Amino acid sequence: MEPNWKLILSDSDSHHVRLMQSVLETEGLQTSMIDHSDSAFPSTAESELFVLEEEFEKASDILAANQ
What we know:
The protein is 34% helix and 27% strand. The protein has a 3-stranded antiparallel β-sheet, with helices on one face. It is globular. It is built from 2 helices and 3 strands. It starts with a strand and ends with a helix.
């Protein structure tokens, strides 16, 4: 991941991460998701959602309002 991206959400429920990604993108924020579900242990795999560092605070507020 490039240095200007910051992890905002990590969860074993990839559906939840995709939903939160959609919420952030609807608000005009750039996101990037890494889904580790193809690992050797899919039941413990985490999906990670990243946002640009400069949008992290706004994204945090949006996620808090949508939890």
